[in-house]
Write a structure and sequence with these properties.
2 copies of one chain form a homodimer. By secondary structure, chain A is of the alpha+beta class. In chain A, 29% of the residues lie in helices and 26% in strands. The longest helix of chain A has 28 residues, at 530-557.
């Protein structure tokens, strides 16, 4: 019974290392056709006409669809409504109807016998477009065209979170600090691009769909509604996925086109996104412009926070609705004691790729904006930035604390144990004071070295999930749950939770993820909720199995259920190890008339559902030591460290890997990755030469420390969710380190910290110093 | 809410009539291989050697397997143990090891790229066989070779059912009657022969198997155990089936060979039985030799019954174990008041095809033996055969009655309402007295016309079954249950049961049968139990859905759950029809946080399990009027009628069709069908020229009357099971009619009543008359 907490090797790796992974592109159906999507080459235009004749006549072409072929079909809905905001006018149809609104907007679908012929045919689709003006900036472009969102620049809605009397707080403040900060446009760009295979079985009247990897049950419902099928006519099957990061697996236009074409042609249809498509078609993320104001009393205690932000949602509102805006806004106070706060975010359309939730959505932004402003405030107040944080961090005596807000309908209960204590221990652990001293020494030698830190507040685990655990008469144990294997090792984690209950090797537990036939409902893998919510459902299901096994085994062993202990997959009478029975034998007995009861499922099967009443709030700290090349503006990270309080690690090695990977992604978004556009709205990063991933040479040795000081009180596993904390604080810590290195009096202004931006900061500082 | 009881058209027919049925042979998997089984050409031999070289070298051959390749693999187990009998020595291995024991015994398996090449290669497998003596008669051959069952003629075990002091009853009797009767060897021979397709997915580590149609969950467990897989690694999928009748879908040697070869080769494997194979390989049935003794008091009341029988189980004991013997033996008293009874059946091996349960197993036999003996007794006692039955039939005042026996562990509770009343009403309805009078008149004109009747006791509905009913947010309703669609219309019946609960059209309910992924456990379709047990599970599942829907809808409508009534797929406040909500909308609400609860499955999903504590006992009467051709001995049925008390008919048209079809099969077994063997054990009926199915021209107009006077008290639907009553009484009624036509003083002696047998009876009667 020590499966939980052990860094057991990943169960997934056996098949992956032997080349037996189940990625969507490896699904080959007899007679399958290939979809190629024709996309808009311009950012904004009226469609005067689409000539598909040449494409239709091309060898191999089976069908060419345009919006006219989808008449009456609704656009892709949002899956998370936001009170007070009507997204309807901003939803994306599967194929653009009348106008195209970003480069990459799907306008036609070509179905062919061959993937290469499909590409050739797609190029023959002739678009007659009348170009229109573009809107590319959410702040300056907001309501440029109030008469019609069709020109973009429309405000979809404003998300507003407030508590306390914030204007009074500012009126009473001894010091206030105000700054504007911008976060660049980047996103999750998984190694494996998206793709889908759909196969309609006219005999069974059922569609099988491979490739949905985030919220398959939601996608099944949307597919059914759009195609006029019943949910049960659609079978979504898990595949492996080469990364997800929140952007893979949402319902995109292609998620309708692929099954629709399978249904219409009666043949299997496959679609695999190419890299350039991916970089313009899959959700972008992050781009926001912020104004933040902080009010302090004379003792440097925070009295209030005012924030306003403009979120660039791209040309349409996709499935997440306003989730990013909500999480940016509601969590702006972070882990601090702030008596009054008002934070609002305007969701604004532009003629760019629509955005979605990418690892730590909103939190990358609010942590960056608040923590960078805190360093600015420390300077202005003449106090050490570490000390300013220490003064204001929530400590043990104040926690748990109900912040007077609701997020997604759930009360915002800060369930941490002691943010201050975590920060203190964490700095001590990494020797952060030595980093700072080292940087100071380097600077005295003329090097541009700085150190920065950030305390972060994360969130995880809202919603519900279900699981089913069964033990067969052969003794085989299986768990099915609603998560997705996107590389994080969820199979291993779920197997550990089950193995713990039955005291068996983790490797003996088979795991099925998001097979909509085997498990009736599941929520998916997003928002660091799989272990918190899904894992708890798994535990509840396993406990149910064990309860029945105890009852039946007690009869078979002539004992009382309470006398039985679990040992190595058996139930034994406590103290009499020879009086035992294997769970498989108990399962076999459960199918005999003696133990089958009306109203109770036969066999050893447990169904668990866990509905989290509130989110859990993991927290941590990020530390960076950076050196700037004064000649090029290049930022080199010398040291990096993350501490993260996650309550309990089911598999520490996997948590470590997740935090590490997340940190690397954060570094990418902070220093390298940038979806830039030219003034006509043409994307400048459509290959991996232009959209720069972090590589090993870009990275320092990253230290990760998992804290298990504060088990989450809301779930029986005590877990807090660990998927996003590595990403959430990087922008802040690195910006603070660069600010320190350059000795800025202001802020870095914007992310990413590309050499050109850093050079500009260096030049501005030099001018400032010269002016003195 | 009038779906139950309506003769709605079959839902199955839409796909079947459009050529979209899902028969196993229509499953085509990319890269599939074909299995051909090499079978023994002799009835008993030692295998000196098998030379597979030529077959292996044949074009297309992928593998040739013999018993040596299955070393260590257990034989096919029985699925129904019989207390006190050890079947182990008599079980069949997938491939014969050392000896072959009947013509058709599988000795090798050839796997080829092509089905025709597979046949050719199979003919190249050279068997070196040393022929051994054969045993072909269960009664005279029993224990011919007590030293070893390998020569066949071994008594596997004896099934013995007794109550009361039967010897005292006979000692006190005023009259006793003794006779020996034999039932011939025939079986279910469905239009579609057997077949299986298995596909091993090495990526998912799962086997999909199409073609299991009777007890797929049992077969899955056996497959898993034999292959060393977990049950959950095997996905059994429903197919349509062109008839089953109890013999299709048991676990046969081929049910191991097909998935085993798929696992070993990593390629899909298909096997489709040809007709000649089918006639020697699929279970035979029925062959039994009986002695029956009846004891009467002076008022013609039955005092006791003694029976002894020898059941020919063929060369091995197959999955049913001793089920046929148990049902023959335990039910021998039939629907009569018999104070003391002892009936035993010896299960004996022979060198013939193994047998199994075929429609009305045991009941075709016991009803024939008892009812034909009753007619003999009536003659001997000088009482009218109808009157003799009336004197002895259980009447309302005596029912329900606990017969002091247990069948399959369940008490034998005769749950009928009034057997005498049924018999009286039924004769009246069909005008049976007029049939008899008509026959008498015909005989006065020199024609050999006679009338006969039989009262029958059937049984149905033991065991358990499970079902899951769900309503999606689209409003789509689905039910999954553990039955099999073998032509009887089970999809329609299950849809009706669900439609009744939700007041929706039957056609709007989708039905999934025996998909082991969608439904975790099910029992299958056999023993007239699908509607009784499975249908009740479906009803319980639907009730569970409705209970949750009521609770949630009450909140949404601002009403109390008890106020709500079901109307046309909606819940409405009683008396306020405009305050209503569709079940699909309720389902959608059930996925929202407001209604998802820890410990309760989300959505509108109900899981029902029903465990029948005892069987239900349907009953009825058969009537025949027959004319014998004095020149050829051919029996022509002039009239036939069946009345059957089934408690409640969910779909009267389907029940009618089942009884009709069953009667036709009974006529086949009584007059035409006969698996004869020559003295070396070579089968004489290996084509449909030799094994004669009844055809339209062989049949009279058959009247069927369904009685619903006595709803089964044990299940909420009140159903009794209707699948086998058409078959169970034919042997008896026809034999009695022929006996009447010929004016026999003795019995017909044996079934089937082939012309040669009938001519022999005519000649014996003539000689008898001449002797007078």
């Amino acid at each position: 019974m020590n499966a939980i907490g052990a860094s057991v090797p990943r169960l997934e790796d056996d098949r992956l290392l032997r080349g037996l992974g189940r990625f969507h592109d490896e699904i080959v159906r007899p007679g399958q056709l290939w979809l190629r999507v024709v996309r808009s080459p311009v950012a904004h235009a009226r469609i005067r006409g689409i000539d598909t004749a040449a494409a239709a006549a091309h060898p191999g072409t089976v069908a060419v669809l345009t919006a006219a072929d989808l008449a009456g079909m609704p656009p892709v809905p949002v899956r998370q409504p936001a009170p007070g905001i009507d997204f309807t006018p901003y939803l994306q149809s599967a194929l653009a109807d009348g106008h195209v609104r970003y480069v990459g907007d799907p306008v036609a679908a070509v179905l062919s016998e061959d993937p290469y012929l499909a590409e050739d045919a797609a190029e023959l689709v002739a678009l007659d477009l009348e170009e229109l003006p573009v809107s590319l900036d959410a702040r300056t472009g907001a309501d440029l065209h109030p008469e019609s969102w069709r020109g973009a620049g429309a405000t979809v809605g404003t998300v507003d979170f407030a508590y306390g009397d914030v204007d009074a707080a500012f009126a009473a403040a001894a010091h206030t600090v105000t700054t504007d900060l911008r976060v660049g446009r980047h996103s999750g760009t998984p190694l494996e691009t998206r793709g889908l295979v759909a196969d309609w079985d006219a005999r069974a009247r059922r569609m099988t769909v491979w490739g949905a990897t985030k919220v398959p049950y939601v996608n099944r419902r949307i597919t059914a509604q759009m195609l006029g099928l019943a949910e049960h006519q659609i079978h979504m099957l898990e595949t492996d996925a080469g990364g997800s990061f929140g952007i893979r697996g949402e319902f995109y236009p292609e998620d309708l086109l692929v099954p629709l074409l399978a249904l219409r042609t009666g043949r299997p249809v496959k679609w695999t996104e190419d890299r350039t498509e991916h970089l313009v078609a899959a959700n972008h993320a992050r781009e926001q412009e912020h104004r933040i104001e902080l009010a302090f009393d004379a003792e440097h205690r925070l009295l209030g926070l005012r924030g306003e932000a403009w979120m660039d949602t791209g040309a349409y509102v996709r499935t997440h609705g306003a989730v990013v805006a909500v999480l940016t806004s509601a969590m702006m106070s972070g882990p601090y004691r702030i008596p009054a706060c008002r934070s609002r975010v305007h969701v604004v359309t532009t003629n760019k790729t629509p955005v979605g939730t990418y690892r730590a959505p909103g939190r990358f932004q609010h942590n960056f904006v608040r923590e960078h402003a805190m360093d600015l405030a420390a300077d202005r107040l003449g106090v050490d930035p570490v000390e300013l944080r220490r003064i204001n961090l929530l400590h043990g005596g104040e926690l748990p604390q109900q912040r007077p807000l609701h997020i997604f309908g759930a009360p915002m209960l800060l369930d941490g144990k002691d943010h201050l204590d975590h920060f203190d221990k964490s700095r001590e652990l990494f020797g952060y004071e030595a980093w700072r001293e080292e940087a100071r020494q380097a600077r005295t030698q003329g090097r541009l070295v700085g150190a920065g830190c950030a305390v972060i507040l994360e969130k995880a685990g809202l919603g519900h999930d279900s699981a089913v655990v069964d033990i067969g008469a052969t003794g085989a144990i299986r768990v099915a749950m609603g998560g997705a294997n996107v590389g994080q090792g969820v199979e291993t984690v779920m197997a550990q939770i089950v193995a713990e209950e039955f005291d068996v090797p983790t490797g003996s537990v088979a795991v099925v993820l998001s097979d909509t036939d085997i498990l009736a409902d599941g929520s998916g893998t997003f928002a660091s909720r799989t272990t918190v919510v899904g894992g708890t459902a798994v535990k509840l299901a396993a406990e149910q199995v064990l309860a029945k096994a105890r009852r039946v085994a007690a009869v078979l062993l002539g004992a009382e259920p309470e006398q039985l202990v679990v040992h190595a997959g058996c139930l034994a009478v406590d103290g009499e190890p020879e009086r035992r029975i294997a769970l498989g034998q108990v399962a076999a007995a459960c199918y005999t008339p003696q133990f089958v009861r009306t109203g109770e499922e036969p066999g050893l099967i447990g169904r668990g559902t866990y509905a989290a009443g509130a989110m859990t709030y993991p927290y941590g700290a990020h530390y960076a030591q950076a050196e700037v090349d004064p000649g090029t503006g290049a930022v080199r990270l010398l040291r990096y460290a993350v501490s993260y309080e996650i309550g309990r690690a089911v598999n520490p090695a996997l948590v470590h890997a997740q935090i590490l990977g997340g940190t690397v992604q954060g570094i990418g978004g902070t220093l390298l990755e940038d979806f830039r556009y030219d003034e006509r709205g043409l994307p400048l990063a459509t290959t991996l030469d232009e959209y720069r991933w972090p590589r090993a040479g870009d990275l320092p040795d990253i230290q990760v420390e998992i804290f298990e000081d504060a088990p989450a009180p809301g779930n029986p596993l005590g877990v807090r969710g660990a998927g996003e904390g590595g990403t959430a604080g990087v922008g802040a810590a690195v910006a603070n380190a660069v600010r320190d290195a350059l000795g800025l009096t202001g802020t870095v202004g914007a992310l990413p910290l590309h050499p050109d931006r850093v050079m500009a900061l260096i030049r501005a500082t030099d001018e400032e110093e010269e002016a003195i």
